[in-house]
Amino acid sequence: MLSEPSIVPEIRINDKIEPVGTLPHAMVRRTPGSITAIKPMRDGVIADFDAAEKMLGYFIKKAHGRRRFVRPRVVIGVPSQITQVERRAVKDSAYRAKASEVHLIEEGMAAAIGAGLPITEASGNMIVDIGGGTTDIAVISLAGVVYSRSVRVAGNAMDEAIANFVKREKDLLIGERTAEIVKMELGSASPQAMRREMEVKGRHVLAGKPVTVVLNDEEIREALADTVRQIVSAVRSALEQTPPELSADICDRGITLSGGGAFLRGMDERIRNETGVPVQVAEDPLSSVVLGAGKMLSDFNLLRKISLD
User: Fold this and answer.
1) Which of 44, 98, 229, 250 has the most CB atoms within 10 Å of its CB?
2) Average pLDDT over residues 140-146
3) Under DSSP, is residue 99 helix (H, G, I), strand (E, B) or coil?
4) How confident is the model at residue 229 (pLDDT cuts 50, 70, 90)?
5) What are the residues whose beta carbons fall under 8 Å from the beta carbon of 244, sequence distance 6 or more?
6) Where do the CATH 3.90.640.10 domains begin and end in the chain?
């Protein structure tokens, strides 16, 4: 129905701020001075309350064909270790955006449902959802979360690590979007058979003029090393704290990867080598959480059971 970045542009007209819908990701940092691109979410939780409310209201209207007086039931995925204050902020934003009911579920649980894991069976299922702001790890059995952990290191941290590396090693300033493109083109979590290179344009730190440098996959792997290490360490910690019977199930079924971070080359191989457990990537990793949240709307009994309320 709808797939848009969580970026809200605001335009200043006669000293008044007016929302103008959402902004394509490619336009971030390319707007004129009168338009400000605001990211309402940071590390998986709300950073700008008013912008989050406007964004949710816009999404609801657009998904319903801009019909008036729409008051939908809303399911929102949140990090597992979200605080009560952060939880309250998410629900209040949704209610102010004219939602009739708001249900919060852990992103790990939503990703498992969206990935098609048999969460209602009496067996262990492990999901690792590497999103934008957080990496959520969950072990699920009998429609309940046996273990969950949320690490605030994920795709955005990878982009930042690449931008910092290029600035430090190449004296080049690049933006968030360029760093993300570099990550997708050259990023990897383990050594690859084929060497890859690409040209990257940006502003020289000292000279201040536009320049072009060549980056290769080995350099970007070095830039991402610390971020990847933290994610793998969190997965190993989860396995260590999983009950033995469920650990046996995970050895048989393997770990499922979802989220945009699942596309990072060699991520599944890296986790497999570090843990000794089979790893598979979800069929649609980028949409696993939202697909799982959507399925909950048609299974209200299960939604009430797993809701964080």
Assistant:
1) 44
2) 91
3) coil
4) very high
5) none
6) 155-218
Query: What stretches of the chain show up as alpha helix (H) in DSSP?
Result: 49-63, 84-96, 107-114, 155-170, 176-186, 217-240, 244-253, 267-275, 288-296, 300-306
Tokens of 39: 């990211």
Supply φ then ψ for residue 25, to 5 degrees: -60, -35
DSSP type of residue 29: T
- Examine the pLDDT at 218 and tell me if it is beyond 70: yes
Query: Which one of 3.40.630.30, 3.40.1080.10, 3.90.640.10, 2.30.30.100 gives the CATH number of domain 155-218?
Result: 3.90.640.10
Tokens describing residue 298: 């048609």
What is the rounded average pLDDT for all residues in the chain? 89
* Residue 37 · residue 7 · CB < 8 Å: yes
Residue range 119-154+225-285 in CATH 3.30.420.40:
yes
| 47 neighbors 75 (Cβ within 8 angstroms) | no
Q: How far apart, in whole angstroms, are the C-alpha atoms of residue 61 and residue 51? A: 15
List, for residues 161-182, the tens digit of each pLDDT value: 999 999 999 999 999 889 999 9
Cα 204 to Cα 174: distance, rounded to the nearest angstrom: 9
